[in-house]
């Protein structure tokens, strides 16, 4: 079994893969306060829940955008599973090129998304990841990432509203029944949803105008489930895109 780990700003998502197929996935909160033993015990528990043991783990690959978590997490993998994890970053073979001013600035999660999207669906394509931030990355038909855009995520926008105002509450991110909101919570939900949706559609339109190409739009990320059925600008929603990309990267580096 290969364990693919996506360490994000809000959550750590684990994918258990066998033969390239995702057999289970789990989510835990990203926390710099967790020790290596705590991480190791949590992963071991998830394995047991899926009827596996630590001995079933052949290798681990990690994509991380949270450097402060990496020391404890890497130590957990070595201690509990006896393997040195592959970490997506400089020096790793990905099969995709990055033509940006500073290629190292591209997040490992975005890189894995692009590898998974290009390997699964070809190019050209625009890859959207709805996470803590919403990211857009353009991949040419030759497999080159030529542009990246970062905007606020819908959950981050909701948090900003509740944290920066005295009377606005935290709200669930959901599709509102109507734009005609009649109370504070539904007013916030409708405002967040339609503002976010409109921003996505306008951004994709601008990419089409500036590339003058016909490209597919592939979306991923947990919050994408709320959006993908509400607009015709998204061609494919693939919640497992990052794990597909990590499997492809692992296959290129497994004999390291």
UniProtKB/TrEMBL annotation:
The compartments listed are: Cytoplasm
Q: Which cofactor does it need?
A: K(+); NH4(+)
Q: Which residues bind substrate?
A: 107-110, 184
Q: What class of enzyme is it?
A: transferase
Q: Which residues bind K(+)?
A: 129
Q: Which Gene3D superfamilies match?
A: 3.30.420.40
| UniProt KW keywords | ATP-binding, Coenzyme A biosynthesis, Cytoplasm, Kinase, Metal-binding, Nucleotide-binding, Potassium, Transferase
Q: Which InterPro entries match?
A: ATPase_NBD, Type_III_PanK
Q: What is its EC number?
A: 2.7.1.33
Recorded catalytic reaction(s): these are: (R)-pantothenate + ATP = (R)-4'-phosphopantothenate + ADP + H(+)
Major localization class: cytoplasm
Instruction: Work out whether the entry's keyword set contains Membrane.
Output: no
MF (Gene Ontology): ATP binding; metal ion binding; pantothenate kinase activity
Bilayer-crossing residues are none
Q: What does this protein do?
A: Catalyzes the phosphorylation of pantothenate (Pan), the first step in CoA biosynthesis.
Which NCBIfam families does the UniProt record give? baf, PRK13318.1-4, PRK13321.1
What family does this chain come from, according to its entry? Belongs to the type III pantothenate kinase family.
Q: Self-association or partners: how does it assemble?
A: Homodimer.
Know the name of this protein?
Answer: Type III pantothenate kinase
Q: Which organism does this sequence originate in?
A: Bifidobacterium fermentum
Q: What is the lineage of its organism?
A: Bacteria, Bacillati, Actinomycetota, Actinomycetes, Bifidobacteriales
